[in-house]
Amino acid sequence: MSAPLGSPAVAAKAEDVPSSPSAEFIDRPRVLVVDDDERNLLAIQNVLDDLGELVIAKSGEEALRHLLKGEFAVILLDVYMPGLDGYETAQIIREREQTKRIPIVFLSAVNKEAEHLMRGYSMGAVDYVFKPVDPIVLRSKVAVFVDLFAKTKEIERKARQEQALLDANLRANAERLKVEQELRRAEQRQNAIIQSLPIMLYLEPLECEDRCPIFVSGNMEPMTGFTLEQVAGTPALWADRLHPDDRGRVLTALEERQQTGRFSVEYRWRCADDTYRDFHDQAVLLRDPAGRPIEFAGTLTDVTDRKSLESQLVHAQKMDAIGKLTGGIAHDFNNLLAAVIGGLGMIERRAALDEEQTKILLMTKRAAEQGTELVRRLLAFARRQKLEPSAIELQSLSEAVAELLTHTLGGLVQLNWRNEDRIWPAFADQAQLELALMNLIINARDAMPHGGAIEVEAHNRSYGGDGTLDVEAGDYVVISVSDTGHGIAPEQLEKVLEPFFTTKEVGKGTGLGLSMVYGFAQQSGGAFRLQSKVGKGTCAELWLPKAPDNLAAAREPSNKDRPVWNGRSLRILLVDDHEEVRRATAGMLEDLGHEVIEAREGQVALELVSGTGHYDLLVTDYAMPKQSGTDLIRQVRKHRPDLPSLIITGYADAEAISDRPADVCVLSKPFDINEMSSAIATCCLAAPAQG
To answer: In degrees to the nearest 10, what's the CA dihedral of 308, 311, 315, 318?
Structure first.
């Protein structure tokens, strides 16, 4: 058993002993007091109670259990106790990682010999307090460890706070760095977008006599060829390079922006390479929070491509509208010419004319035939002519065209034709292609009145569909016709493709040559491109599709390929709402030996067919007011399913009448008696009349 403290001073009050600074620590340090004597424990509590939280243990085992539950500033350990004594308890405390650094002060009533002291120190004791204990000594020694523990904890707390602040600062810096990086990336993306667009941002002072931007961002040099320094160093540069036709309008708009605070205008501007670009220039007035004007902020956008596309669209719409108008006019002309040519044919066949009258008739007939050729050219432009495309070998084509033009070009003009090695066959109507090339070559000849060389070249080209041509992606044969003549002015370059527009002198051109070539190329699935410079010459390019590999070259049908009719007399029902054409056609059929019954409309024809009359052939106009020719044929065949039928039409694209029955033939107006006879033979062979 431990001896009681026994000193009269043990009963001294705590307030008589100076308190430790650690007593003010927010979390009171804990002191473990281990003693099996109740009196000693009570005395120690009375002395140390205000230094910290005292935890009492009456044995070594109980002390070890307390050490498992938390930290202690110091352990007051009695040396002699039943069970585990002080030395054994101290040894266990020092062996445990969590407790080995807690200071141990031994309480001992005996054994002050050096041997016992050394044993205690070897067990981990830092000090000895001998009984009877002086309260001041005990309090002072415990206060040192309590204060050391409190300061250690305060240092750790501050270290944690500083670490937390450091971590927070690092996180804040990391976030700030991340935000800055994102901002820089956003700026880079924005700059990349602006650089990739045909647009320039600028700031401009309120008052400046000439255009003088103080800030430019974007594509200034790629767009204009000038840098900001060049523009700033030459104040009049911007105004001097405005297109003359736009200058007055743009300068007026610039003056008005001082009053309106806004500016939006499109103009043409000559860039550093001396080419004009179309720009859309717009700006607004910026104000400060007090409403005072500061400067103008604006954008300059390159709209050249957009304007070009708009121009192409307008041109395409105009050409389409002209084509539709031309096609309609050609239909009416064909009807008129059919009546004229048919009537002339009747006169030629039926009237006995003297030599002078025959000359007048032939002259009139030639004029009508020229009218037919004129209409054919109009229809070529309108893309409504009948085409028979086939595979065309360019070598044989060049020989045929050269032979046709041998006596036309004259001695001053030389024709040079070069085909690329292994040139592809073109897919087009050979007769129309020959006519188109003749038109281009004759135009080239007329552009060189003093002579020169016309270069015709054929090349293989693969088009990727980049929008530069109005054709589908694919393989094409390009035939170019170039001259070194006087050229075509830029403002006339598009107009020359319109019907009846010509740059030649009065009486030297119909204005239909190039329009015919344009229409032929479009209808053939190709394109026509014209490039010219005044004083240097013109190059016309005709793009035609490559012929399919499995398509053999076309050949002219021989006589044995043509249908033959046995020439027997037929009873023909003729339906046409145009009286003159109907009478001319009826006369032609009668001259061929046929009996003709005329009807002015489909309803009359139906009544005739549904009656008792028998007919060998139905000949009907296609475009009639109440009922089309194909509709009439369907109605008639409800009564006579075996009746052969022939459609005559003033529309050029006769084969495009796709709603007709498969065995129905089509004959285009105007036609002569031989063409009519051949068409009747074809119809009768396709669907032989019964009876």
So the answer is: 160
Taking alpha carbons only, the member of 386, 545, 500, 325 closest to residue 317 is: 325
How far, in Å, CA of 472 to CA of 467, rounded? 9
Q: List the beta bridge partners of residue 619.
A: 574, 646
DSSP 166-183: HHHHHHHHHHHHHHHHHH
Report yes or no: 281 and 304 within 8 Å, Cβ to Cβ: no
Identity of residue 11: A
pLDDT at 512 (0 to 100): 52
Residue 49 CA to residue 31 CA, distance in Å, equals 9
Instruction: Tell me the torsion sign for CA atoms 250, 251, 252, 254.
Output: positive
Is the CB of residue 198 less than 8 Å from the CB of residue 221? no
Calpha distance 401→438 (Å, rounded) = 7
Structure tokens at 280: 């859309």
Tokens of 537: 């010459």
Pairing verdict, β 645-649 and 390-392: unpaired
Instruction: For residue 634, count CB atoms less than 10 angstroms from its CB and return exposed for 0-12, middle for 13-18, buried for 19 or more.
Output: middle
How do residues 233-257 score in pLDDT, each as one tens digit?
Answer: 887 888 888 999 998 898 888 888 8
Helices (H) and strands (E) in the chain, counts: 18, 22
| Structure tokens, 270 | 């000559």
What is this structure's pTM? 0.40
- What is the spatial distance between Cα 263 and Cα 546, in angstroms, rounded to a whole number? 52
Instruction: For residue 253, report the phi and psi dihedrals to the nearest 5 degrees.
Output: -65, -35
| pLDDT band at residue 513 using 50, 70 and 90 as cut-offs | low
The CA distance from 436 to 392, in Å, is: 14
Phi-psi region of 292 (alpha: psi -120 to 50; beta: other; left: phi over 0): beta
Q: What is the pLDDT of residue 185?
A: 83
- Residue 10 Cα distances to 4, 258, 381, angstroms: 10, 100, 130
Q: Pairing relation of β-strands 571-575 and 595-599?
A: parallel
Sequence-ordered strand ranges (E) for 63-130? 74-78, 104-108, 125-130
Phi, psi of 89 (to 5 degrees): -65, -45
**In 290-386, which ranges are continuous DSSP H helix?**
304-350, 355-381
| Residues of the chain above pLDDT 90, percent | 8
Q: Which of 248, 228, 223 is nearest to 300 (CA)?
A: 223
Better-scored residue on pLDDT, 306 or 272: 272
Q: What count of residues does the chain have?
A: 691
Residue 152 and residue 166: Cα distance in Å, rounded?
Answer: 20
Please tell me the predicted confidence (pLDDT) of residue 688.
44
* 82: nearest Cα among 163, 7, 167, 1: 1
